[in-house]
Design brief:
alpha/beta; 12 strands; single chain
Length: 641
């Protein structure tokens, strides 16, 4: 059994969620989420960030498992969690079909109130089962709750009957909606709304906690997950509940990064404001800003899942992942030396004088230093320096470095460009880039999105099984890790197949990655470790803004929170890093160091597929600056270029 087959929390049963739960090191999720906090919280995160798993952890079904169905242990947590997946409401049903938006919003509000009330009363009913002494309050509670419904003549003294009553009201709405196209009546005539908006959500918990002394200090926590499935109008209603929250009710709302469609309420142009009406908790930032803890978190997830699958491994899981073996790979490169052949070809093409002497001085036993010498020669060509003199100097430096002496010129360049030079060596000599392999690098690649890491692990186990490798006794080869990364990239790119009018998101991703890769592997790259670009946010037009927003919301690019201040103004420019999975696929850096500045015009040529011809010219002109013979682009290619 592959311990990483399940990568979505919704596919787990409550018991499986409990067995696979892993808390965040040092500061727990309990401290982050604070389930008894009165101020509502909106939890945002990328697809696969773990919102559902975390929110379900605070639901009553999980509380019951943790407490071993002991009433006192449940009370110690200080709250009762009522969990709802918004997608289960099928919010799209509450729209169109010649009914006004106002009518639909009213019906939806009542329907949501009924649903949440049922879920909460299910919890209370279960509490009554666990602690039968509380049954003595059942008659009083039911009587008070029924008074919240207008024109109601029901006499109910049992919680289960009360739940059935709510379900009956809900089924009436379902019937009216399902038959609206066949009915001659308007929806407002078919549906009878028996309570005021929000009354059920706020008053039923108040009745329970004020009537039952044992629950008087308990908070009622409504956990709404997948909030992005609500329309703007539907969110407007719930935003109003957030703004007008009453004790003992608390709210935790889970949404993807693009999930909060509006902050408007139904209260005369009022908006809910972060910091006053609700607290915003960005799960992605927590993972990205606490790399050491995030790495430990993923290690613990791996160990827990593997252990639950009865596979015996060491607690140090990092040792099972092979990483780049530079010494053996450099020996292979030394036998090929294709990078030297390409260097000679360029020198001949541009009729550089003294080629034989230059090459003889540049070549040395250490292929990394050899590639560094080539880089320095390229720099000398750009500056118009005497290449014979430079090569003689490089020969001396190579000997000093080989003998263990420090060479300042080498140290300065290697400090920034070492990984770029290594990756260039691999690429030029036809070797696969293994710098992305190893446990630490797989963590980096995930960019703070646990599901990305879990998907890689899922494919690692799958390929291991295919090659009949035993994970408990053998290390995972770099070949298998690269295959797993490839499969995960293909999965990740599925969402990018969405297209809008004049917009092809997959094309936009491929274009920006191709462009940055060309820059990274040019003769003299403009920056080290290229995978990040910067743009003035004031330059965004609506079309460009739409593309960037989509790529950011789906985590194809990662926005840096603070950006970078423009040298000539006080404006902070936006910075975006290519997602680690895409960086692997396009051979970009998974570290964030050098930043490529792009104008809005350049980004439009990159992102708009109808400007492809302009993009080709732009890339050609840009690369002229960074490749031998380092000419400035002028949109005109010379003969034979």
């Amino acid at each position: 059994m592959n311990p990483f087959d399940v990568t979505k929390a919704v596919d787990y049963s409550d018991q499986e969620l409990f067995y696979n739960w892993v808390d965040f090191p040092k500061k727990s999720f309990q401290e982050f989420i604070r389930p008894t906090l009165e101020m509502p919280m909106i939890i945002v995160g990328s697809k696969g960030s773990g919102k559902t798993h975390i929110m379900k952890h605070f639901s009553y079904s999980m509380q019951k498992i943790r407490s071993e169905k002991t009433f006192d242990n449940i009370l110690k947590e200080g709250y009762l969690g009522v969990y709802l997946r918004c997608s289960g409401l099928n919010g799209y049903r509450f729209s169109g079909r010649n009914e006004s938006e106002e009518t639909w919003n009213s019906v939806f509000a009542y329907y949501l109130d009924l649903w949440l009330s049922q879920l909460f009363l299910d919890v209370i009913n279960n509490i009554f089962v666990i602690n039968k002494d509380l049954k003595r309050y059942e008659d009083i509670v039911c009587n008070k709750i029924l008074k919240l419904f207008s024109n109601n003549k029901e006499k109910i003294t049992d919680i289960c009957e009360l739940i059935d009553f709510l379900k009956f009201q809900q089924k009436n709405i379902d019937h009216a909606i399902n038959n609206i196209s066949l009915s001659s009546q308007e929806l407002s005539q078919s549906v009878e709304i028996l309570s005021n908006p929000g009354d059920l959500i706020f008053e039923i918990p108040n009745i329970i906690t004020s009537t039952i002394p044992e629950l008087s200090n308990i908070k009622i926590l409504f956990l709404l997950d997948e909030y992005e499935n609500f329309s703007s109008g539907q969110q407007r209603y719930f935003n109003t509940l957030i703004r007008e929250r009453k004790n003992p009710v608390c709210f935790k709302i889970g949404a993807r990064r693009y999930g909060l469609k509006t902050t408007e309420t139904l209260s005369a142009d009022e908006h809910i404001k972060a910091g006053s009406e609700y607290e915003l908790f960005d799960l992605d930032n927590i993972f990205r800003e606490n790399y050491v803890e995030y790495k430990e978190f993923l290690k613990n997830i791996c160990i827990k899942r593997i252990d639950n699958s009865q596979i015996k491994i060491s607690t140090d899981i990092t040792k099972y992942f092979n990483h780049s073996n530079l010494s053996s790979d450099f020996e292979i490169i030394k036998g090929k030396r294709i990078h030297v052949d390409k260097f000679i070809t360029k020198l001949k093409k541009y009729k550089i004088k003294g080629i034989n002497e230059i090459v003889k001085n540049v070549v040395c036993d250490n292929v990394l230093i050899e590639r560094l010498n080539i880089y320095i020669i390229y720099r000398g060509i750009k500056k118009g320096e005497n290449l014979i003199e430079i090569s003689n100097l490089l020969k001396e430096c190579s000997q000093q470095y080989t003998n263990g002496h420090d060479v300042k010129m080498y140290d300065v360049i290697l400090d920034k460009f070492k990984q770029d030079l290594i990756d260039a060596l691999y690429r030029e000599n036809g070797l696969k880039l293994t710098s992305y392999c190893g446990f630490d690098n797989l963590v980096k690649i995930s960019n703070g999105i646990p599901r990305h890491f879990l998907m890689i692990m899922k494919h690692i186990f799958r390929w291991n099984t295919f090659y009949e490798n035993d994970f408990s006794n053998e290390t995972v080869s770099t070949e298998i890790q690269l295959l797993a990364i490839k499969d995960t990239v293909l999965w990740f790119m599925e969402d990018a197949n969405k297209t809008d009018e004049n917009t092809n998101y997959r094309y936009s991703i491929e274009s920006i990655c191709n462009f940055l890769r060309e820059l990274r592997f040019s003769d003299l790259p403009p920056e080290c470790s290229i995978s990040t670009f910067e743009i003035k946010n004031v330059d965004f037009n609506l079309g460009l803004k739409k593309i960037i927003t989509f790529l950011e919301q789906y985590s194809y690019i990662i926005k840096e929170d603070y950006g970078r201040r423009d040298k000539n103004s006080n404006v902070r420019n936006d910075m975006y890093q290519i997602n680690g999975l895409l960086a692997c696929w396009w051979e970009l850096s998974i570290s964030r160091r050098g930043i490529v500045k792009l104008s809005s015009d350049q980004l439009e040529k990159i992102f708009y597929y109808n400007r492809f011809e302009e993009l080709k010219i732009m890339i050609t002109n840009e690369l002229l600056k960074y490749n031998v013979p380092f000419r400035k682009g002028n949109n005109v290619l010379e003969l034979f270029d």
